[in-house]
């Protein structure tokens, strides 16, 4: 598939509309870090879609008014976000030819705390792309649900790369991988359900809010620094290669190898940050304390509690519901919660 497939129809009729959509966040297991022009990822990635961490968005479109965007986050007007969305809309006009022919009032709310440091761009752009596809169906005619979702994923990617994975439930792949049939750099695809062992279908992700608030380096800047990172090519290659064991692990249910691979990916992401020029570190003292405690706990109990990290200090605690979850939850509450800033934890599960 090429971008040509996503060009919009030139025949459309616009009318005043209000649409609403909701989209969850996702957490990558094999990470995307580094990109080329037009939001093409430097390597494929695979993520779990979350269940509770969502963005709910309503989009009011006023036809034939001069193009402008007004955004409200949890009821408060956000001018900076509106500027970002305006730029985004101008950038996707080829794919939605009606998009600059009206005024937008976008109201958006996250189900997770605003200042938590949980990235809202994946769920946020996912929800916006879904709203746009709803408007497109009204203005340009209906397409199949599959096509519409794929285009929503394509459009979400142009807003924020990892957002394209949030359009699908379960395990989701974005980026061309020889290991995943139908995978593409342009949009995400669902990892085939029949290829996933049951143990991976009932999983928890508890996000420990180690540091709430703004990150010192944005992911846009972080991706950019991969361009001059001397280890970048090796990293991209490794991420591609990691799809081989990942495929086998997902099929066989090999938890030990899953844990090894997922933690390795998280630490590699942060190692890349430390080896960037200029270097930066997003982990905090609490992040390292939690990681060490998790490793001690696993050594002592053998229970499958492990972590991943996104581009921030928060720790995503991953563990399956396989009978040991009560012991793990008690450990988290008594030993790990103390390393958060304000006893903050967002308890989520993977959405299948
Ligand atoms: O989609 P972005 O630009 O916010 O980048 C996401 C990068 C990571 O969260 C660190 C990894 C990933 O694959 O989601």
Automatic annotation (TrEMBL):
Keywords of this entry: ATP-binding, Lipid biosynthesis, Lipid metabolism, Lyase, Nucleotide-binding
Q: Which Gene3D superfamilies match?
A: 3.30.230.10, GHMP kinase, C-terminal domain
Task: List GO molecular-function terms, semicolon-separated.
Answer: ATP binding; carboxy-lyase activity
Q: Where is the Mvd1 C-terminal domain?
A: 207-333
The biological process GO terms on file are:
isoprenoid biosynthetic process
Instruction: Tell me which domain of life the UniProt entry assigns to the organism this sequence originates from.
Output: Bacteria
A Pfam family matched by this chain, by name?
MDD_C
> The Diphosphomevalonate decarboxylase-like N-terminal domain covers which part of the protein?
24-179
PANTHER family in UniProt: DIPHOSPHOMEVALONATE DECARBOXYLASE (PTHR10977:SF3)
Instruction: Kindly provide the name given to this protein in its UniProt entry.
Output: Diphosphomevalonate decarboxylase
Q: Which organism is it from?
A: Chryseobacterium kwangjuense
């Amino acid at each position: 598939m090429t971008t040509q497939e996503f060009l919009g129809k030139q025949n459309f009729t616009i009318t005043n509309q209000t649409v609403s959509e909701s989209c969850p966040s996702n957490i990558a297991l094999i990470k995307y870090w580094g990109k080329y022009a037009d939001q093409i990822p430097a390597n494929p990635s695979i993520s779990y879609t979350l269940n509770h961490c969502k963005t709910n968005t309503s989009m009011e479109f006023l036809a034939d008014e001069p193009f402008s965007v007004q955004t409200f986050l949890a009821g408060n007007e956000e001018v900076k976000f509106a500027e970002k969305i305006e730029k985004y809309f101008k950038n996707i006009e080829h794919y939605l030819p009606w998009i600059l022919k009206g005024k937008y009032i976008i109201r958006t709310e996250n189900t997770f705390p605003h200042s938590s440091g949980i990235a809202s761009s994946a769920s946020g752009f996912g929800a916006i792309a879904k709203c746009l596809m709803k408007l497109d169906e009204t203005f340009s005619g209906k397409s199949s649900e599959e096509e519409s979702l794929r285009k929503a994923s394509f459009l979400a990617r142009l807003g924020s790369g990892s957002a394209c994975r949030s359009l699908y439930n379960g395990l989701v792949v974005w980026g061309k991988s020889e290991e995943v049939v139908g995978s593409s750099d342009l949009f995400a695809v669902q990892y085939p359900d029949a290829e996933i062992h049951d143990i991976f279908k009932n999983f928890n992700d508890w996000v420990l809010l180690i540091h709430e608030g703004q990150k010192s380096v944005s992911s846009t800047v972080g991706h950019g620094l991969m361009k001059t990172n001397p280890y970048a090519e090796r990293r991209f290659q490794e991420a591609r290669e990691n799809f081989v064991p990942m495929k086998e692990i997902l099929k066989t249910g090999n938890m030990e190898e899953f844990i090894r691979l997922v933690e390795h990916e998280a630490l590699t992401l942060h190692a890349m940050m430390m080896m960037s020029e200029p270097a930066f570190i997003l982990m905090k003292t609490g992040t390292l304390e939690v990681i060490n405690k998790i490793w001690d706990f696993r050594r002592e109990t053998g229970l499958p509690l492990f972590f991943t990290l996104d581009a921030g200090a928060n720790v995503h605690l991953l563990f399956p519901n396989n009978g040991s979850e009560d012991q793990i939850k008690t450990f988290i509450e008594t030993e790990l919660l103390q390393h958060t800033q304000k006893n903050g934890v967002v308890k989520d599960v993977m959405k299948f």
